[in-house]
Amino acid sequence: MGEIKISPDYSWFRSTVPLKKIIVDDDDSKIWSLYDAGPRNIRCPLIFLPPVSGTADVFFQQILALSGWGYRVIAVSYPVYWEIFEFCDGFRKLLDHLQLDKVSAYNKMLGKKPRCIST
């Protein structure tokens, strides 16, 4: 991502979409980082979840394009959870914190085809 970070598109993204940090668990070391772009009145946004080795900004091109078309897009970097149920509980708390009614989630796993899931 070295060359991408110096690109005009990435610079524009970082200057227009702030990185937010949110703690939703009792453990203050578990920090969710996210970019939230598009109309805030939309309560059913598209959420991008990066691969384990990625961060929220890997989706910067999708965030810029989709929010420009009027969609609300949230890309998250999640903290380390050692159990899947803990991750799901933390993700639910994040959605509650953001006051989201329903989401469409997109996850890209390394070495796999992209999947689209809804909750």
Automatic annotation (TrEMBL):
Keyword match Cytoplasm: yes
Location relative to the cell: Cytoplasm
Principal place of residence: cytoplasm
A cellular-component GO term for this protein: trans-Golgi network transport vesicle
Keyword Cytoplasm on entry: yes
Single Gene Ontology MF annotation: CD4 receptor binding
Keyword entries, A-Z: Cytoplasm
Family: Belongs to the AB hydrolase superfamily.
Descriptive protein name: Maspardin
